[in-house]
Amino acid sequence: MMRLWMGISLLMVACGGDTSDDEPIETPSQKAELTGASTVAAGLSTTCGIKTDGELLCWGGDLYGTLGRGPTEEGIAGQPKLAASIASTLKFKEVALVETACAVTQDGALYCWGPNDQGQLGVEGVETELISLGGFFDKPVSKSPVEVFPSGVGHVGVGTSHVCASFDNGDLKCWGQAKYGAGGLIDDIENGAAPADLEFDGATVAQIELGGDASCVLTESGEVYCWGSNFIGLLGVPDDRMNPDHMDCAGGGALAIRYCTTKPQLVPLPAPARKLDVTNACACALLENDELHCWGSPVCGFGVESDLAKIPPTKVSAPTPVQDMAVTGESVCVISGDKLSCAGYGYHGLTGSFEDSATFVEIEGYPAAPTSLAGGQDFMCATLEDSRTACFGANDSWQAGVRAPADAESGNLKSFSLTAPVVVEVQP
């Protein structure tokens, strides 16, 4: 799935990701910086932030309507854009995205927009338009927010092709791709446009994090539960042929390479967790004792030498104490002592260079101390103590919040990438 996402990024570059000639370049005196974002969420090639007053702004790639600005948005179709407000009549408290984006209002309503090829918008018969890029890349989308639930939603998580939400009454519902159970169903044919209830013990959900084929939640008591595909150990527990909750989802009997479940499995952690992050390849939990534990693919925080899945969760040798953390495509970053450090693959500059690093490398160049992190696909964003937001890594679709370099080479993602953080700009 990681390589699929990279393929889509390359397609976006070929279809107009380098749009530095499409709009006049601003002079420094014209630039306005994003300030006041209390929370930031990063997706495939788009980023969103919610300001302290509930205003939602998004920036970056818009190939599939992920910016949510509606069909009448001026400019070239699919053209990347700087940060601007969406759904200005609504006030939000939480946002999550990959290509599809969903946000919870302060009144508990849930809105989603973007691709609906797997039923991610959660509403049967919703009006969409077809974005046609050829074959696999053709997708029906809604460029405007669609109301999925009018009230009662506590938290939302968005995966590659599915969405999950928790509710004030304790319910946990998922919808979208159903093949491996991450969306609440196991069905090789039909995807679940109608939200399905998961069998959950009623613990209050504090956070939802979804990958490609696996889903996880963090409860208010610090427990982590995961379900869906256990490929490369993303459920945090070994496959168990004798466990009735574990089903063969690969159709290969004794030769099956993928087990899955729709029943949330308790991840064995040595202490309660206070933050969770999940990608297609791995998951990490920041514990209340400030330790970082990860599971799944070894590329996320375990060092790049090993290719063995880590089950159960393994303590990561990160700078301590860890104040915040986030996982991006194949790297993990932490804040410790007001400094940000990253480990993993460096192709997009996420180690402060384009070199892989099995140990954590300090990222230099922040204009103020970072306070919280959000990881997208091969890029990382941080809110700063002076209320600004800064990002680095992949920027082929302006997902880091600034225009791509004028000398970037179409098809060469590295030439679009940033090895040092830049402050997110607001569209004039």
Automatic annotation (TrEMBL):
One of its GO terms (cellular component) is cytoplasm. InterPro entries: Ran_GTPase-activating (IPR051553), RCC1/BLIP-II (IPR009091), Reg_chr_condens (IPR000408). GO terms for molecular function: guanyl-nucleotide exchange factor activity. Signal peptide: none annotated. PANTHER family: REGULATOR OF CHROMOSOME CONDENSATION (PTHR45982:SF1). This is Uncharacterized protein. It comes from Microvenator marinus.
